[in-house]
Amino acid sequence: MTMPVLTFGIPVYNGEKYLPDALHSIQEQDLDDLEIIISDNGSTDGTQEICEAAAASDDRVLYLRHDTNRGGAWNYVRTVESASSPLFSWQAADDVKLATFASACVQALDDAGPEAVFACPRTQLIGADGVVFEDLDDRDLGLGAQTPHERVHNLFRSQASHVMYGVVRMSAMRRSRGLLPLVGDDMVLLVELLCQGKMALVDDQLFWQRRHAEQFSQQGENQVKWHAPNGGVRFAFPQTRLNFELHRAVTRSHISIPEKARSLAALESRWVIPRWRGMGSDVRTALGVARA
């Protein structure tokens, strides 16, 4: 059996409602050499049956079942660790990727050469019904800029965290620390990737990111719990930890000292200072002080 060109990693926990659409969209990609890894984080609904049926009918599907929920970041990392291809793409269990997503991203990386470490198409938002309700303003994200500090600046300006669901060179992924178990792990990973190289933009809307009421909260305690289901929230200091790891993402990179200084300046001006209240909230939570 030849090595697949691209691995799609699908981390899932109790995703029976939208998983069939998400999985089908990957199985229908027009790129032949695919590997599909589903990592089930101890689901208690019908997820297991859906995954087992897919693995039985499609030899490209590898289903990994875990007995307990070890947290969202752990599950995302598990799909990367199990991949065998030179290219990788995460697929959230409620999103949809149109049939030419894979081939378009692979072609974009081939055209851009080694300076591009990942590629992503333009994105639309869909609701629970699968109907597009918004086009993201992502044609001019600036993540293909020439210098690392420009790319980092533009990432914080645009806050385009959805591009982590593009196609990433596995060599670049391995040079990063991957997804860390902390709130904002997507932004940390993207900073590490953008310090290595550019994003190649596919100027077609081939990625549908879903918004629906059943999604876990992206704020406060629920977001912390997503990463560490059995962890404590009070002393988690999520914003403070995130700021620290974003700084580390820049300082551990192999860019020049002047580029590091410019990237850190962009981090402070575009991210840390505008979110200073978040660190204050961390302290209030630790002290058990309720918001007024």
From TrEMBL:
It comes from the Bacteria. SUPFAM superfamilies: Nucleotide-diphospho-sugar transferases. Pfam families: Glycos_transf_2. GO terms for molecular function: transferase activity. Gene3D superfamilies: Spore Coat Polysaccharide Biosynthesis Protein SpsA, Chain A (3.90.550.10). InterPro entries: Glyco_trans_2-like (IPR001173), Nucleotide-diphossugar_trans (IPR029044). Residues 9-121 form the Glycosyltransferase 2-like domain. Keywords: Transferase. CDD domains: Glyco_tranf_GTA_type. This is Glycosyl transferase family 2.
